[in-house]
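Shipment paperwork, digital attachment
Item: protein structure file
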Amino acid sequence: MTAFIKRVLKVYFRDKTSVFFSLLAVFIIIGLYVFFLGDVWSSNIQVEKPRLIMDSWIMSGLLAVVSLTTTMGAFGIMVDDRHNKITKDFYSSPIKRSSLTAGYIGGAFLIGLIMSVLTFILVEIYIVAKGGTFPDFTTLIKIFGLIILSTLANTTLLFFIVSFLKSQNAFGTASSVVGTLVGFITGIYMPIGILPDAVQIVVKIFPVSHSAVLFRQVMMESVMNEQFGNAPAEFKEEFAEEMGIVLKWGDTVIPSYVNVLVILATAVLFYLLSIRSLSRKSH
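Attachment content:
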């Protein structure tokens, strides 16, 4: 299995085009923020350094996006192997089918993890260069924990979806849909708090929205306390709700531990569904 995971990693990083397209949604988000959205949103925040808040906001959202899109790109290897009949060669070898499946899942998870960590490093370089501060040790532990948790949930969810895709065209379409929707689901293109209530309910169904919320809470805590220190508590709470730093169900703010439980439940649920689906196909 370890050898197969290494193969997945080599194939993914060797194909620079695949890496680029798995990060395309990230590049689009950065472009929109730098040239348009950043100034628009910053102008509406009445604090000393509004752009510093928005820099932290957009960059924390990117971490949720990267772990989804790069994992999706990694599963393209599995689809290509099916299309090129490579999986038949694997099945005729002594390698167990379960080991192959674990190899694809493990490879995709590690790719999502690696790309998320690299993105975080670049994000922090940008934030510090713009006048922000580097996270303390406790915050770093929380961020890396969230990266692992988010990537794990995205891996099991996407594996379940991709297991039903039989062609490269179908996978390409699914990847395009994921890349397009992820900016809306994470509340980057349009903040979650200003969406209609019905749309907000739909957004909250997706685990990546909960990942984005948790990344924002952890990465924005310091700058929020600094910039909103003298502001009324109601103003800070309203901003957090509007910008998707917290999610509400009705009039109740969803606690952070519930966001974590949603992501964990997603990882477990889709892992079990994937195992069930694969066991049926093997009979």
